[in-house]
Design brief:
27% strand; 10 helices; 6-stranded parallel beta sheet; globular; Dihydrodipicolinate Reductase, domain 2; Rossmann fold
Length: 367
């Protein structure tokens, strides 16, 4: 059993609190806003999971108990992540620290410092790109490992979803202007909120042995009306260090939503699909010689976070070795692509990522 503290009583904090409580772990949830804590207790948690769990303790930061925690989760807005993570790692580092995506803002301010603090403390730091650990991702990885589609030739990822669903889950917000979501410089917009697509592209590129993204050419549709400033459409062409090419699309306008990956191979194709219907994710694949196969994978919304919590449990139990799909490095690799996206759009040219320069803007080269 592991003792858990969660910063942030919003939607993600509730999802992860439930995931931890499903394993019997005690949870302390804290938030600057007392009303947010009351909303969690009286509305969000019971409406999602049937009833309030009295084993979840609630506190504002000035009333936090002086305890040691095995796992700390940061579920606050992305422009607060780096300062909070730094404070945690400098004072009472836990065994594991999970930071919700996007990891930081496109400025990358403070990112390299977290890398250095992780090395100094030995804390396992993870980033909440939970789709890499869902059942359909594991099944797709197995199909790819079995060489069922031959040599991968190209890869496309889509996270295109109208953000009405986000505001439906946060009814206390009247729109993007009330939150970081309406400001790409704070980590919002399509490039930040739906950076799952960049991350899952990178995940499958790694599984295919194609390496990290080193070139980005981006086009954004920016909304800037004097109140908000965010990208509602984010389109990328990318190339990895092996020369593998593909594309990524993210937006906050598409409905019904499309969350998918397609890998075209030399002998067939593989599709990874989220919410293919109300109760299932799916994988589809074919080799061109037989009828294509579709495998439905039952899942509920809490299942989207189950694999993430199970993975952290395996790390804490010493049962996982190797590079984690949600490691700090993988999350930072995604943030380099987010930052490169905005620079490419602004400069109207392809930009290059030089990983030797660390996780800072100096790693993105325009010449």
């Amino acid at each position: 059993m592991y003792n858990v503290k969660i910063y942030g009583a919003g939607s993600i904090g509730n999802h992860l609190a439930h995931g931890c409580r499903s394993k019997g772990w005690p949870v302390l949830m804290c938030d600057l806003d007392q009303q947010a804590l009351e909303r969690t207790r009286d509305d969000i948690y019971p409406s999602r999971y049937g009833q309030w769990d009295p084993q979840i303790r609630l506190a504002t930061p000035d009333n936090l108990p002086d305890e040691d925690f095995d796992l700390i989760i940061i579920g606050t807005p992305p422009d607060s992540h780096m300062a909070l993570a730094r404070s945690i790692l400098e004072t009472k580092p836990p065994r594991a620290l999970l930071i919700e995506k996007p990891l930081c803002t496109p400025s990358l301010q403070g990112a390299q410092e977290i890398v250095e603090l992780q090395a100094a403390t030995g804390t396992f730091v993870a980033v909440g790109y939970n789709h890499t650990l869902t059942q359909n991702s594991q099944r797709a990885a197995q199909i790819l490992a079995d060489n069922a589609i031959g040599r991968p030739l190209t890869l496309s990822a889509r996270f295109r979803e109208h953000w009405g669903g986000i505001f439906g889950a946060h009814p206390w917000l009247s729109g993007p202007q009330d939150t970081y979501l309406g400001f790409f410089e704070r980590g919002g917009g399509a490039s930040g909120e739906h950076s799952h697509a960049m991350n899952i592209w990178q995940h499958f590129a790694h599984l295919a042995g194609q390496g990290r993204i080193t070139e980005v050419s981006a086009a954004l549709d920016i909304v800037d009306d004097g109140t908000v400033k965010y990208d509602r459409v984010c389109l990328l062409n990318v190339k990895t260090e092996s020369g593998f090419v593909g594309n990524i699309a993210q937006d906050v306008v598409t409905e019904p939503a499309e969350k998918s990956v397609r890998i075209q191979g030399s002998q067939g194709y593989l599709e990874w699909l989220v919410n293919v219907d109300a109760g299932n994710d799916a994988v589809r694949y074919g080799d061109g010689t037989t009828e294509a196969r579709e495998e439905l994978i039952p899942k509920s919304r809490p299942d989207d976070f189950k694999g993430e919590i199970d993975h952290i449990a395996a790390v804490l139990d010493g049962e996982f070795s190797g590079e984690s799909p949600i490691s700090l490095q993988r999350g930072l690799d995604t943030m380099l692509v987010v930052a490169a996206t905005h620079i490419s759009h602004r400069e109207k040219r392809t930009v290059h990522i030089n990983y030797d320069n660390g996780y800072r803007l100096d790693a993105i080269e325009t010449a």
